[in-house]
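Complex record, two chains
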Amino acid sequence: MSAATQAPARRHGLSPVRRAQNLLMGGLILLATLLVVAPLILIFLYLLREGLGAMNLDFFTRVPAPEGETGGGLANAILGSVEMLAMASLLGVTVGVAGGIFLAEYPRHPLMPTIRMVSDVLAGIPAIVMGLVAYGLIVLQFGFSGLAGAVALGFLMIPIVVRTTEEVLKLVPQTVREAGLALGLPKWLVTLRIVLPAAAGGIVTGVMLALARVAGEAAPLLFTAFGNNQINVDPTKPMSALPLEIYRGATSAYDENQRLAKAGALLLITLIFLTSLLARRASRRK
Amino acid sequence: MSEPTHTRPPRPAGLSSASDRVFQGLILLLAGIIVLVFVLSVYQLGRESWPTLQNIGLPFFFQRVWNPVQNEYGAVAMVMGTLVTSLVALVISVPLAVASALFVAEYAPKWLANPVGYLIELLAAVPSVVYGLWALFVLAPVLSRWEQGFFTDPGKLALYTSCKTLWDSGQTNLQCLFVPSSFDGRGLALAVIILTVMILPYTASVARDVIRLVPQDQREAMYALGATKWEVISRAILPYARAGILGGVILALGRALGETLAVAMVIGDSQDLLKSIWGGASTMASVIANQFGDAQEALHRSSVVTLGLSLFVLSVAVNFVARLIIARLTPKGIQ
């Protein structure tokens, strides 16, 4: 829409000062935009250069070698991330979608403003604080575990899923609901069988964005999932995750750990970018 | 999205409004978990920070010394570190963010605007640890070279020595604040740089959205009067979008306050009061990340959680204000 408004072609009346100012500000804006985008490109190129070499079969199938030795991979972290994200989705999607349904379908319920406000407030709470909360709720009783990490991530997912679900549900035309009700369906069946399927694409997009968002969180896992340098599928035991290994590796003194961290970062960032792009493309089509 | 209006759902016989009430109850129960999470968070943080609030009380926020060995806890240095890094990062990032939003919304042709918009949003998707890793391996060496180069100049070495005596006595002055004190590139300045990059996309995307909401008539009226593009932007667009942009800025502030790992990795984890912007410092979030796992002493642990509670309260307040501003000032009739 911006391209539609061109400055008028008549230029001879323009004073040199105004023309120079116009050009200068245009140039500065272009420069600033390049400056904003540069870090993203620099980070990606850096990780490609440093991490691509380490992405061999070992990287995906082995666990990190003991400190000081070479070789190994991040199989423990990849598996841990997948497990914890799956468990986090269970919590985040169930509560998030229900919250979205409540906000969109029961707007006159007296509790609606409270739940909307609390959900907005939760969206702004720093991830590390959620880690402290999950520590107090779960780790203090049951010790470090993948489950505790998943709960922290699930808490972080809830507000994102609530918001997108509410928004896509509101896009479903009111007449569609009325048509369902006119057929004699109870409201809940209209919601479940008509409104939700109509909004399913948008909800899936929201869930993917939420996953992409929490997949990179290491802070809340520091003292919940804690990390584990062996492969672990038991959710009640400490578990590793990609961001955790990146954190440990980047702050480690050993070259080998740093190398794995860079490769891990490349894998993580690629997965997150792909997810976000797919989600955005899907939501754009409507 | 598929249009389901054409498929007629099977009609279940004999379902009364009683089933509606069951479903509503179920949904309300699940949605109630959201409130439960909030209440549990407040309870949990409050309970764990209680020993600190009881034993140290309000002076916790006014005492300078943070010394786990002596069991003394005062949070001034971290509160300062959090505010300084966040506010400076905000000041640097806002013009950049607004400029990039203007570029996407006003300057770029459509084929360029979409990809650039994508890229800026991907900036928000990069995990904190990855920013930290990049800052450690790429930016820190650059700063480190400069810091080492600084001392090869004899005149500046004298300046450093005089500052060193000042720093050792626990003081600093305006000039020494900008003299490099470390050689590894880590410190407050690097944290500010990385925070600036991390919060840019939040302001940028809100700014872009509100700039797009500025009515087209307003632009056309200015152009019709013979205004240049910049004049249209500075007199017809930015004043109109100002309030919304402010909301985006405060949202970014909320992000900056709670940003943890990237900052924790590069800021140098020093709990001394700020001496030089090139030296080590810490923020409330970075102290939680760096110390909570090692905190054995009950009061130490509780003090770290108190920082978490403060961060919680601070981010709730900041986000509340941001949403209030965005909601109040978004032009009516546009949804």
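Note: The two ends of chain B are 20 Å apart (CA to CA).
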